[in-house]
Write a structure and sequence with these properties.
heterodimer; A: 421 residues; alpha+beta; two-stranded antiparallel ribbon; B: 381 residues; two-stranded antiparallel sheet
Chain lengths: 421, 381
């Protein structure tokens, strides 16, 4: 086994064991809890500052990771488990993928594809083009994903629902914009026109993508898109299988085409793999959390050392009454852990509050996706796992920060402690 | 004992606490500098020496759409244009790596020196680049990262074109603001991909700064109402357009980070003022033997200021030395090639430290001012 994994595996176990021992030591030889509580209240200013410090470290940790989680969800949430997506082999985005028209003609009649009530195969050939649009209020421009879809495209993507207006009419220069994109980009209100590829497109409706990747798109008719953007071929195909067990056979058949190497895989898998954008934020979140927790540990140490110093006589008294050194140690160490734990709870509450406020006011964020090279819309997503991680983080800061002061308290000589002013 | 040594002795009386306070201030300020530098890097476009004379021309639809190669003679004829080269993003993955770690562009080797004037490379390497069809040159950062040298062959799988191509390294350049890119020949790309007649962008150099607006207007006009309308803009405007694409992320990260730095500073201030609160009795004695309030304020302020200054010295100074003499480009895997700590950022760090020193001394000063000597002497804590 790799020594690093051993250390990484052993450390949390040892830490958890130590915390359990602290609780055990205090529980079996109880120093009245009100004592600790009142002592804490006496030094409320520095205690409050320490708690606040831990709380904000936790908030930042959770919110940055919640941003990453939200970004990942915006694509991981996308797709229908019955659908197979076909793109050019080696392309990492639909916009840089090419599927030839002849290939589409062949693939659409493959027997594994499901058929609708009229007997037509349920497959859509899309053209995905990145277009540059001005933001609202003149705040610069950004890339947007424009998807040209064939009529089946809507049926294949039940996540996309019309919210206002109507769908585009095939053969007309009309577009339907994601509601969340429309709030961010100029000239995307229903009835307005925006210009791209030398043509004006009329916005006839807004759709809601149910927090999927489609929330970051503009849709129009595939053949109109091919004519506006002067493209002979399509970007990708999306097909529904009658039976998902046929997927390997279907993929083999599609990938055997020699004219242009294609790759066929489940739509859900394709989107789940698009996690590039969230990586830098995750790294930033972890880095900041570690760096800030060091600062928080120093602050906690200062507070706890001061607490020990102020309570020297009381510690001497406790020792005279028969409390063991390890109980003193556990008492102070646990006090630090509980203080930091309170900070952790406040931190989690703040992060959840931030998320709730964003949801309540319908605030969404947008940034450049490294996968599609266009704007992706996302929302904070505080997961239960993140809350748990934040709490563990807080308690680790508390235990580490109060460990040395607790040792000092436990080691105080009884007589000297009693003599202390 | 002078007043100076009195203050110093007081500050260092509890060495552990002084150290912890200084270190927590230092960490806060280190983080502050780090974030300010990182933010500056992503919001401020990198600029080379020749940037003010360079123009970038892209497809008006978006940068991800190609341009017809037949636009070249039209652009070359525009008065004021000195040199034009295609500049096509290859989007290649090296050695089966997950993501793209450095960018590759196809261009015209004969125009390279005319457009990207700041790249430094021996003349024979330029000659080799012009003569060998599968030649490529790479930036020094990438060369160092992968331990590549002249004569090596590299294979790249494009995510944009349906090709995997092999290149021979004929030179390693340095001196551009971002020495990471790999450059190769447009004609080699045309031939390998079989997609002749299309380029990603045009980059050109104008003869003088006065020509710039005229050239930009002329290019935009030349292709208006054609099937490939273009957007020509100065290099600076082009780079700035990328910054707008970051959207809200910059603001979000900034908000979160400033909240935390603010709190860490508050915590530091609280621990610093704790040191003074614990000395209430002594301050009361000083008051009793005739020291005036403003003298006591001076003691408190000097001590808290001193601690903050020491923290600033370690935090800001440490960041400065680490980022200036350490290789951040290597540490971040080439994400931040320069990572410059500007004097303005050092100034901000010093300002925050001074504010911290003052803020931390306010509460204890008020308490000292309000305290009566008898109460102060009674303080146990």
């Amino acid at each position: 086994m790799n020594p690093v994994t051993v250390i990484l595996g052993v450390f949390p176990l040892a830490f958890a064991g130590y915390v359990l021992w602290l609780i055990y030591a205090v529980a079996t030889s109880p120093i009245p809890l009100p004592y600790n509580f009142k002592s804490v209240l006496v030094r409320w200013r520095s205690t409050a500052a320490t708690i606040l410090g831990v709380a904000l470290v936790v908030t930042v940790f959770i919110l940055l990771h919640a941003m990453a989680a939200g970004l990942e969800r915006s694509s991981a949430n996308t797709g229908d488990p019955r659908n197979i997506m076909i793109v050019r082999k080696g392309s990492t985005a639909e916009s840089s993928s090419v599927v030839m028209r002849e290939q589409y003609k062949v693939i659409q009649y493959l027997p594994q594809i499901a058929r609708d009530a009229q007997g037509r195969p349920i497959i859509s050939a899309d053209l995905v083009v990145i277009i540059n649009l001005p933001r609202r209020e003149g705040a610069g421009e950004a890339n947007v994903t424009m998807r040209g879809v064939t009529p089946m495209g809507k049926e294949l993507r039940p996540q996309v629902k019309l919210a206002q207006g109507r769908w585009f009419t095939p053969g007309k220069r009309e577009a339907v914009v994601s509601m969340k994109m429309a709030r961010r980009f100029a000239d995307t209100d229903i009835g307005q026109k925006f210009r791209t590829g030398g043509n004006d497109l009329t916005v006839v409706g807004w759709f809601d993508g149910s927090d999927s990747a489609f929330d970051s798109e503009i849709w129009m008719d595939a053949d109109e898109a091919r004519s506006i953007f002067d493209r002979e071929n399509y970007s990708s195909l999306l097909a529904r299988l009658a039976n998902t067990n046929d997927a390997p056979a279907f993929a083999d058949r599609v990938e055997s085409d020699k004219r242009m190497a294609l790759r066929a895989d489940f739509e859900t898998k394709y989107y789940a793999e698009q996690t590039l954008t969230a990586m830098p934020i995750k790294i930033l979140g972890s880095f900041l959390a570690v760096a800030m927790s060091i600062g928080a540990v120093f602050a906690a140490m200062n507070t706890m050392y001061a607490a020990v110093g102020a309570r020297t006589r009381e510690i001497g008294t406790l020792r005279v009454l028969g409390f063991r050194r390890r109980v003193i140690l556990a008492s102070f160490n646990l006090e630090g852990a509980i203080l930091a734990g309170i900070g952790g709870v406040i931190g989690c509450a703040l992060a959840l509050l931030a998320q709730w406020l964003c949801v309540a006011f319908g605030v969404h964020f947008g940034t450049l996706s490294f996968n599609t090279f266009s704007e992706v819309i996302f929302q904070f997503r505080v997961t239960p796992l993140l809350v748990a991680e934040g709490m563990i983080f807080a308690i680790v800061v508390g235990v580490v920060g109060s460990f040395l002061p607790a040792i000092r308290a436990a080691r105080l000589p009884v007589i000297a402690a009693l003599k202390a002013m | 004992m002078t007043i100076g040594t009195f203050i110093l002795k007081n500050a260092l009386r509890n060495k552990r606490r002084a150290t912890l306070s200084i270190l927590s201030v230092a960490i806060s300020l280190f983080l502050l500098v780090l974030l300010l530098v990182a933010l500056r890097e992503i919001t401020l476009p990198v600029e080379g020496a020749g940037a003010e004379l360079r123009v970038a021309v892209r497809n008006k639809i978006s940068i991800a759409n190609l341009l017809p190669a037949k636009q070249l003679p039209v652009i070359e004829k525009i008065p004021g244009v000195e040199a034009v080269t295609p500049f096509t993003w290859f989007g290649g993955k090296y050695k089966g790596e997950q993501g793209m770690t450095f960018a590759q562009f196809a261009l015209d080797p004969k125009k390279l020196r005319g457009v990207f004037t700041e790249a430094r490379m021996p003349a024979e390497n330029y000659a080799a680049f012009e003569n060998e069809r599968d030649a490529c040159i790479i930036g020094k950062i990438t060369a160092d990262k992968y331990k590549l040298k002249v004569g090596d062959k590299i294979t790249l799988e494009s995510t944009v074109y349906p090709v995997t191509m092999e290149f021979k390294i004929v030179g390693i350049y340095a001196g551009t603001p971002d020495d990471r890119n790999m450059l190769f020949r447009q004609d080699y790309l045309d031939e390998s991909s079989g997609l002749k007649g299309q380029v990603g962008m045009w980059w050109l150099k104008v003869k003088s700064a006065e020509d710039m607006p005229k050239v930009i207007a002329a290019i935009n006009k030349a292709f208006a109402n054609t099937s490939a309308e273009v957007r020509a803009e100065s290099e600076r405007a082009f780079q700035l357009s990328f910054i707008s694409m970051w959207g809200n992320i910059k603001l979000l990260v900034m908000l979160i980070c400033s909240a935390v730095i603010f709190t860490l500073l508050l915590v530091s201030a609280s621990t610093m003022s704790m040191a003074i609160r614990e000395r209430f009795r002594e301050l009361a004695i000083l008051k009793a033997i005739g020291y005036r309030r403003r003298e006591l304020f001076a003691f408190i302020l000097a001590e808290s200021f001193g601690l903050a200054a020491a923290g600033a010295l370690i935090g800001v100074g440490g960041a400065y030395f680490l980022f200036t003499y350490g290789d951040v480009g290597k540490m971040t895997n080439g994400m931040f090639p320069s990572f410059e700590v500007t004097s303005r950022i050092v100034g901000i760090g010093a300002l925050v430290a001074s504010l911290l020193g003052i803020v931390a001394s306010i509460m204890p000063s008020i308490a000292v001012a309000k305290m009566s000597v008898t109460d102060g002497l009674k303080t146990l804590d």
